[in-house]
Design goal:
The complex is a heterodimer of chains A (116) and B (112). Chain A has 116 residues and is mostly beta strands. Chain A has no helices and eleven strands. Chain A is globular, with a radius of gyration of 14 Å. Classes of the chains: A mainly beta (116), B mainly beta (112).
Chain lengths: 116, 112
Amino acid sequence: KQEVTQIPAALSVPEGENLVLNCSFTDSAIYNLQWFRQDPGKGLTSLLLIQSSQREQTSGRLNASLDKSSGRSTLYIAASQPGDSATYLCAASRLYSGAGSYQLTFGKGTKLSVIP
Amino acid sequence: SQTIHQWPATLVQPVGSPLSLECTVEGTSNPNLYWYRQAAGRGLQLLFYSVGIGQISSEVPQNLSASRPQDRQFILSSKKLLLSDSGFYLCAWTRGWETEAFFGQGTRLTVV
């Protein structure tokens, strides 16, 4: 069974700092890995999707990397801003052929606070 | 562009009452649809998924059921709510098994 862990659970940084959020998964047979942002009381906003054949994806100040062999992904945020404050979730996807089911397994998230 | 709608945004229901949460997707056809629940301090848990009209798969045995009466409509239901059904319910869609997942804004359900 896939398990996804995100460390740290919470992070507080001053504005302008570069930061890295970590995500680890136990089963390397993933289809893709996706990073989401969740604001309090809101749904999830997709940030970046990394296919299993890729090593990284970039969007603006965000860069996500994937190392399947070590079961790790990182989300790098450059020049952090107060508006980046939110909970960041990573999710690993896999199709379980035996059960015929698709599973997107989420970590519990890292709550980021960017202090002005 | 594609959009996903969920309603209601918040709901307070007494124990034993029925439940119906609705999710619709616009701008695409034959999406894979999912219902997730997010409980406080826990990760998102997949409840149901559907690959087509009338096709529902359940991941976790529970007091809930799902239906897909139309291609882009996904409904989460319960005949009698339990206190443990409280949580944040999220609907999501993908274009296939391997593609990006998009989520609705969620429904905060409180069972009292």
